[in-house]
Amino acid sequence: MKYIDNGDLINKKVLVRVDFNVSQNEDGSISNDERIKQTLPTLKYLLESDNTLILISHLGNPKTIAEKFSLKPVAKRLQEYLLDYKVLFVNDYDQTLVKQMDTKTIYLLENLRFDPGEKTNAPEFAKKLASLADAYVNDAFSASHRAHASIVGVPKFLPSYAGLLLKKELETIGKAIENPQKPLVAILGGAKISSKIKLIGKFIEITNQIILAGGLAHNFFLAEGRQIGKSISEPTQLEHTKELIQKANKYNINITLPVDVIIQTGEIKKLDEVGESDQILDVGPESRASFSRIISEAKTIIWNGPLGMFEDPKFRNGTDAIYSAITHNENATSVVGGGDTLTAIAGKEGREKITHISTAGGAMLEFIENGTLPGIEALK
Ligand code: ADP
Ligand code: MG
Question: Could you identify the atom of ligand 1 that is nearest to the CA of residue 338?
Fold first, then answer.
């Protein structure tokens, strides 16, 4: 695999796959721009070598073209960080764009997922993107677990390189979990149940303890025949969840679930008290205490996914408790990641106590499992 700092890329048109899938507020405005900031070293490095940059990214998971998923506000934000250049947002692009390109302009193309060819990895779409540039750079570690056109398709058509953020993620996560010190504790939360649940099987093999909260925990409650009311869950994953419970028993691994929860009214309930009309939105105080105890004894910690609907301050205590337990465990190596997890811990004190804060959630977990990702393989 070649990295951009090998000196090849000078005065070229470079297509850079970044992950500008930033956290958004309800109205579509940016709530956390960490992912933009983290790609700046790569962008600046390439700009200093007189390359012309064409940036590509997805944002959210749009079913159709919709204003809320436009990258236009991202172009505006990026402009604030790169004042010596003009950031031009490009909605429609073809070869005419290439003829007009100049080195003082950075071109940010509209959300890749507005074209169905992105997710299906359509060769025509990959070719269309590749035709805009002389070289391709992947700096989107957090999207590299997806075999989409911009990740695995384009490198088939262009000389390809890994960006500096991708390099840093690979090296630091790799180092943190290579021969991890035990006990290794994984904490998994959030809302993306189906994409995260498939990783639990391997985690059962490599960790000592798994703490689950959010949607994942609800699926386990369902599998145990418990009432979860209106809480988020994915019933289609129920069989899989039951298999995971059996596997955990076989490996003698403790999957720790919340024992108490906070429902939509703010009321604390024991699990048995959850009724049909309740919605579980955070873990309760007993759960916070027991999770914190487990984390305090860990030597290696992997955390992805908020423990509750942290966007509402009423439901962020679980997430805050985990953050606090991790940053207070000075003896552990810790890797924390996920787009929303990053938003939840943005601006908090003690972040330097975390060994590595990754821009990636699903990709981080998959990289820990498999030691590589489709996007990394595509660069080789
Ligand atoms: P990440 O981006 O860190 O990988 P996810 O995208 O999987 O995490 O999930 C983040 C979302 O999960 C947040 O918007 C949060 O509100 C939501 N969430 C967490 N717990 C719950 C819950 N119990 N009920 C509803 N939503 C939840
Ligand atoms: Mg997310």
Answer: 3
Which DSSP helix (H) or strand (E) runs through 17? strand 13-17
Ligand 1 pocket residue status of 232, Cβ below 6 Å: yes
The pairing of strands 254-256 and 333-337 is unpaired
Tell me the pairing of strands 30-32 and 86-90.
unpaired
Q: Rounded CA gap, 301 and 341, in Å?
A: 15
To test ligand 1's pocket by mutation, which of 24, 141, 199, 232 has the most ligand atoms within 8 angstroms of CB?
A: 232
Residues forming the active site? 35, 192, 339, 362
The C-alpha atoms of residue 360 and residue 363 are separated, in whole angstroms, by 6
**Coil/strand/helix, residue 23:** strand
CA atoms of 199 and 237, how far apart (whole Å): 13
Q: Is the CB of 46 under 6 A from ligand 1?
A: no
pLDDT digits (tens, 9 = 90+) for 294-318: 999 999 999 999 999 999 999 999 9
Q: Which residue type occupies 379?
A: L
Supply the pTM of this predicted model: 0.89
Who's near 224: CB < 8 A, 6+ residues apart? 245
Q: What distance in Å separates the CA atoms of residue 197 and residue 255, rounded to the nearest whole number?
A: 13
Tell me, in angstroms, the distance from the centre of ligand 1 to residue 218's CA: 12
Helix, strand, or coil (residue 117): helix
Ligand in nearest proximity to the CA of 192: 1
Nearest in space to 154 (alpha carbons), one of 109, 87, 90, 103 = 109
Report DSSP letters for 103-155, one per residue.
TTEEEEE--GGGSTHHHHT-HHHHHHHHTT-SEEEE--GGGTTS--IIIIIGG
Please state whether beta strands 280-283 and 260-263 pair in parallel, antiparallel, or not at all (unpaired): antiparallel
Kindly state if the Cβ of 192 falls inside 6 Å of ligand 1. yes
Average pLDDT score, the chain = 96
